[in-house]
Each structure stands twice: as C-alpha cells, then as structure tokens.
C-alpha cells in the first residue's frame, strides 16, 4: 500500500513541487506537512479553507509559513522577506498543484497592529503566483509591514483570505 501511495505521489500533477529544503514532493509533501507540522499553533504550517478568513501568526525569525488548503493537495507559502528597510515584506505564493486552465488563486491578506484599535489596517490583494522553487524568486507585489506593527515578541497576526481559482 505504501508503494502505491509513493507511486501515486510521483505521478500526481504536483509531483515536481518540493518544499524549501525538503526531500518530499507532490502529495507526499502535503501529507508530510499535514502530519508533522500542522498539528500545533507553534508549528510552521496551518490549514486554511477557500472563501474563509484564516488568522496566521508569523514571527520575524520565520522565513515563511506553510498554508495547507483543505482540498488535500494545494499548498501556499506566506513569505516573510527581510529585504525592506524599517519593516518586512509579506507575499503569498502557490507551491502546487498548478491551477488548471487560466484559473488563478486570488487572495487578500491583512495585518492589524495588536493592542492599537485605532491603527490602520494594512492589506494587499492579488493572484498568488505559482512557484516551483524559492531560490531566485522575486515577488512582484508584497505587503509592507513596518517594524512598529510587530509586537514585543516579534510576531504579527496576518489574516489570509483565499478566493477563486478552485
């Protein structure tokens, strides 16, 4: 049975997608992340649903957060770039499987400053680009989050809303 699962994962449409620094691929990658990394709030992965808002805690030290879709196959990365002065750049990419046809997975992400209800809500929206490898990836669009929005534990809450493309 295990051999069949491995063969199925190798032949699945998402079979060439690997996680950053990971030897798992395709459905094996999704299952590995779901089984070992999505069980605890402190882990690097969370499960999200289409057309529902999901709050994700992101720490400055985390280069990315994995978002697993409830469809059992789709994976997204919330990238945490430290390449912007006086803040961080957040962007969302789809790691697989590639949407069929001309379908795009659209998203909206929001960041609110904790403990300051009067602060502006920062947001960004667009289509999540499909990415096979993060090496050399340059986001065309991102949400700039100033250093002042990160709390005393160097974390921020990001609300992600995936829409369309399913």
UniProtKB/TrEMBL annotation:
SUPFAM superfamilies: TRAF domain-like. It comes from the Eukaryota. This is Uncharacterized protein. It comes from Aegilops tauschii.
């Amino acid at each position: 049975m295990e051999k069949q699962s491995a063969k199925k994962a190798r032949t699945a449409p998402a079979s060439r997608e690997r996680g950053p620094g990971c030897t798992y691929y395709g459905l094996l990658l999704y299952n590995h992340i779901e089984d070992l990394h999505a069980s605890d709030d402190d882990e690097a992965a969370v499960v999200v649903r289409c057309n529902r808002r999901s709050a994700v805690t992101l720490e400055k030290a985390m280069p990315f957060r994995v978002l697993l879709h409830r469809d059992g196959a789709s994976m997204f990365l919330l990238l945490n770039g430290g390449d912007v002065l006086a803040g961080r750049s957040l962007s969302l990419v789809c790691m697989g499987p590639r949407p069929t046809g001309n379908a795009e997975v659209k998203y909206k992400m929001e960041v609110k400053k904790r403990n300051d209800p009067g602060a502006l809500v920062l947001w960004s929206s667009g289509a999540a680009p499909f990415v096979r490898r993060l090496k050399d990836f340059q986001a065309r669009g991102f949400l700039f989050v100033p250093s002042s929005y990160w709390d005393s534990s160097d974390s921020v809450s990001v609300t992600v809303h995936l829409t369309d493309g399913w």
